[in-house]
Amino acid sequence: MSLEHRAFVYGGTDHFLAVTEPFLRSGLEAGQAVVAVAQEPNLSALHDLFGDDAEIEWVDAATFYLHPVRTLRDYQALVNKFAPRTVCALAEPVWRGWDERQTLEWIRYESLINEVFKDSGARALCPYDSEALSPRILEEARRTHPMMVTDGPALASGAYVDPVTFGANCDRSLRFSRPGDAEYFAVEDDDLHALRSFVAERALLHGLAKRPAQNLVTAVNEVAANALQHGVPPVGMWIWQDGPELLCEVGDNGLWRPAPTPLTGFIPPDSALQRGFGLWTVRLLVDLMELRAGWDGTFVRLHIR
């Protein structure tokens, strides 16, 4: 069964309720597992219409949409939890509070939904507030959702871009610059103990708490090991501070070509043996992971606050 993934552009609470209430009721009537993830005051207004007895999981989007890869993982957990029943999900993204790089990753996440859940039989309606969101975000909704809803029936989005092409365009838009005072560490052999110690010391100096510091060390170790195994020497790591963020970048002279799909590392793996498991894990460990591959080599940049 294929995924039904629709964006709903609404204006005001009344418009929101007029479309989302019948959508959720249709899921209940069809025997689907119904989940409502929305922002306030929309969530409370919708909950009031159904009451506490409705078999709906109510989730505040403000606590669910904190990290794109973790949100993708959590939606996958919901789909697996209710299987073999299919899921009917109201899924209102959160677009405020992100910088440009984070916003790009959330846009990419909306596109990835089409690949990750393509055979799930799930129905997803993603509300976009026309009164609060920028024209850029509303336009991206048309590019990441195959179908659009406003007042009438759902219509095909003429702007829709498939996830592979969309992801490639996201990667091409990345621009990496590195400050001149970034510290450098040469990664010359498979013994990465010295690299881990170096990163741990800088994380401590930056004031990272114990858990995020450990996550960063683990992430750098995984990326460096991957570069040593699959990249072209020399391999090196740069680390520097940018405001509240600590950034680590691992680079080598090779040109990374992901296989078997350009979405390797973005798609939740079935097991630790599946290709892409390492990059997927790295994305979960840090606040943001960016990858740029070009004529000058392959560079993986890790952001952590």
TrEMBL record:
Histidine kinase/HSP90-like ATPase domain sequence ranges: 187-302
Domain MEDS: 5-146
GO molecular function: kinase activity
CDD domains, alphabetized: HATPase_RsbW-like
Alphabetically ordered keywords of this record: Kinase, Transferase
Protein name, UniProt field: Sensor histidine kinase
Organism: Actinomadura montaniterrae
